[in-house]
Amino acid sequence: MADDADKPARDYRETVFLPDTPFPMRAGLPVKEPEILARWAKLDLYNTMRAERQAAKAPLFVLHDGPPYANGAIHIGHALQKTLKDFVVRSRFAMGYDVDYVPGWDCHGLPIEWKIEEELRGQGRRKDEVSKAEFRERCRAYAAQWIDVQREGFKRLGVVGDWENRYATMDYSSEAAIVAEFHKFVTSGQLYRGSKPVMWSPVERTALADAEVEYADVNSPTIWVKFPVVDGSEAARGASIVIWTTTPWTIPANRAISYNNDIAYGVYLVEAMEEGLEFEPWARAGDKLIVADKLSGEVFKAAKIAATRRIETFDPQGVTAEHPLAGLDSYYQFAVPLLDGDHVTDDAGTGFVHTAPGHGADDYLVWLAHGHREIPETVDPDGAYYDHVALFAGLKVLETEGKKVGKFGPANAAVQDKLIEAGRLLARGRVEHSYPHSWRSKAPVIFRNTPQWFIRMDEPIEDKVHDGKTLRETALDAIEATTFYPAGGKNRIRAMVESRPDWLISRQRAWGAPLAMFVDKETSQPLVDADINRRIVDLIAAEGADAWFTRPVSDFLGEHDPERFEKVEDILDVWFDSGSTHAFTLENREHTRWPADLYLEGSDQHRGWFQSSLLESSGTRGRAPYDAILTHGFTMDENGEKMSKSKGNTVDPEVVIRESGAEIIRLWASMIDYSDDSRIGKTILATTTDAYRKLRNTVRYLLGALAGFDESERVALEDMPPLERFILHRLHELDGQVRDAYAAYLFQDVSRPITEFCQVELSQLFFDIRRDALYCDQPSSLRRRAARTVMDAVFERLTIWLAPLIPFTMEEAWTTRFPDSASNCLRVFPETPAAWANPAEAERWAKIQSVTSVVTGALEVERREKRMGAALEAAPRVHLADPALMAAFEGLDAAELFRTSQATLLAGDGPASAFRLPETPGVAVEPLKAEGKKCARSWRILPEVGSDPRYPELSLRDAEAVAAWDAERA
């Protein structure tokens, strides 16, 4: 009975203006997102956005897509990159630009060839049993299949672009354009054929460019080898020069020994060997060895030599040595000269460098620098010694078939055995060191002398575009003219271009765009004929690159004698393909332009696509095809480790989308510092999901509080209460921050400040203070109308500021409120009035919030000690020693700001027993309990409750509100 007596005589819940919205608290993104995608597809969103911007004469922004490889489903790295690109596209649309973005794919190259070779092996067929036409057709079909799969994956992430007109390097028109770009290098004289050691993959049976090579640690044999001196000083007679190498297999290719004139060398007599060894060392007392003085101790230690005596200084100039295998076969009975070279150091080894000009870049250069021209060929394309190589014919340097594919073959051991037999091995061991591997096959590569086609980096180009500058100089100038995000990217790519060798562009494979040209057999020079080039390009445009491989040469050569010309069957480096994409994506298309405003890829593309595009465009157009470059880091697991399927630490974007929605991946991408390596995993995604819920709840609260809002409610700025003016000031600040951040591609500086604004200024301050007014004031109340006016401004801005980052949610929110709107994505950032800027109001609210923090602290103690329940039970007495703090509350209801029923502000220090916080001096709080009755509608405790006889259970404010509500329904 007592409980019944305490119940109000009337249920006032129907008179309270609670938030009302169909926008659900639970997002249900895995279901909702496909519905929104279908809506966008029906609208033809991307083309509609472009059409509206073009109609408004908007400025053009061009983002050129770096093509992912058409091989396999998308991974989290793809998801990050494409999402960042979508941030750029959508934000530029929102900033009022017309944005051109054509997604593309890289289709040629070895990975797809391997897949087709695997398919053929599964059918019991070998690659050489299949025609090149059939093989290429299989490659084309394979790439097309994965383009479709990846395209759907990217679209599911919410990525907008011209998907219907995507580009692919294997399209006939693309292949024709790539060949046309290649012809420009031929015509301008920048192309040449050279025989030099290049990085060669025996497993893939092709040359590799620098960008196709990565380094990994391997454990290699290391040997110290004696080269007997043929002529020299009396002390050097009978002595041996000692070299050190980690590639024993290159000893048969040795033709010289390199030294450095700045290094001091000595002739050393071995006087004693270490004793008590479990094996017999190859050195003997009485041996004479020549090494760098600085490294002599290390050499003798490796050879188990206990004591030596330096006989004299050794001058290498003019000295000749004997090949260490000369005594086993006449093939090696040639003079081995000593050559001065700057590449030789005394940091490690012996101070002498074994020089095999067919198997090393430095070896090759020092050999040529001393007037030698013949480059020996010792290893064939399969990584085995040629038949003419005595003692080792047919032995494999690297295994290319079977279970040991990619492993070092028997060559290293065989060479060591023969050196022992010849008495020329001084010592051996093993060493862990960095070694080049193919980034595709992960198998080791070798330096191998082969005839290849190169683009010159340092030959002056005599045309109007280059005006005598070399390709390297032109590219370096272009780097200086490019803006880099982050700025450190400039130094990275500049260092690479400054030191890179000539561009190796030929490959000995089948699936790619051809080096479609003829070479004069008499002069060995490319045939330069505009009519022939035109026929080649036209036929490839009509039939694809297959035309080059299947049509008779007469279809191209016209009147020229086919017997005089050699048809080049190599294909182009795939980096040349992708480096040419600007030519057929940005040129000769409507509503775009060359160069692009931006290229965006991973930081590894400084040596890949960024650089190949730079070189291709610098060689043909005299500048880069982009004005700016943006790079992102790699995706790592939560522990900062590289992701690997074998470790089980990968994050599959398809799984995340299926379980949580693409919006979670997008929000994660917006909150990281993408310029560095980024971590992702279950815990991080859970944190991101929590951040998403808070943003969603903020938008949901706005929608509910704005139910029924119309223009008649709007309050002018001059009539706004101080709290609303402060929120408008924050909107003004955020507007500038958001615009600047998007302009600089700093997406983290959009998502994080907005998230903080939603959690702090909105949820914890504005919504919390104005909740009572929104729920309980009359609709005509200035305070309520002002709050809703500001909420409308907040909603208008949040939904477009966040639209580039979490477009699904913002679309859902906007169309919930405005169901007749075509799409939130069609909007632009609204202008924010300069009059909203109000630094003085910001200072006032900083003071108010500092005081409020002390009040909150005092009430928390009361709740913890069970002396008080909700804040509405309180009537804090607040003592303010600082007049500036007191002034901040002028004209404001302190109880409303403290979220209490009553409050009193007093000037002064307050009693010693009052609650204080050390970080907020001059504020003391006495947490008193409110006096009066509890309003049955607003729950505030006030002495005035019951003053209105019509509503004896209500405060005066609530009584007036209910009276108005009743009158409307009478």
- Average pLDDT: 91
Largest sheet: 10 strands, mixed
Radius of gyration: 39 Å
Q: Which structural class do you get from the secondary structure elements?
A: alpha/beta
Number of DSSP-assigned strands:
32
Which regions have little confidence, pLDDT < 50, spanning 5+ residues? 1-5
Number of helices: 29
Distance between the termini: 33 Å
Topology:
Elements: H1 2-6, H2 29-43, H3 45-55, E1 60-64, H4 76-94, E2 98-102, E3 104-105, H5 110-122, H6 132-156, E4 167-168, H7 172-187, E5 191-201, E6 206-208, E7 213-231, E8 240-245, E9 256-259, E10 265-273, E11 288-292, H8 296-302, E12 305-314, E13 320-322, E14 335-340, E15 353-355, H9 361-369, H10 411-422, E16 425-438, E17 446-455, H11 471-480, E18 483-485, H12 489-499, E19 503-504, E20 506-507, E21 518-520, H13 530-543, H14 546-550, H15 554-557, E22 565-567, E23 571-572, H16 574-579, H17 581-585, E24 598-602, H18 609-621, E25 628-632, E26 635-636, H19 653-659, H20 662-671, E27 678-679, H21 682-705, H22 722-743, H23 748-776, H24 782-801, H25 807-817, H26 839-864, E28 877-880, H27 883-888, H28 894-898, E29 904-907, E30 923-926, E31 933-934, E32 941-942, H29 956-968
Parallel strand pairs: 1-2, 1-24, 3-4, 8-11, 9-14, 18-25, 24-25, 26-27, 28-29
Antiparallel strand pairs: 5-6, 5-17, 7-8, 7-13, 7-16, 9-15, 10-11, 10-12, 13-14, 17-19, 20-23, 21-22, 28-30, 31-32
Helix pairs in contact: 2-25, 4-20, 5-6, 7-13, 11-12, 11-18, 19-20, 20-21, 20-23, 21-23, 21-24, 21-25, 22-23, 22-24, 22-26, 23-24
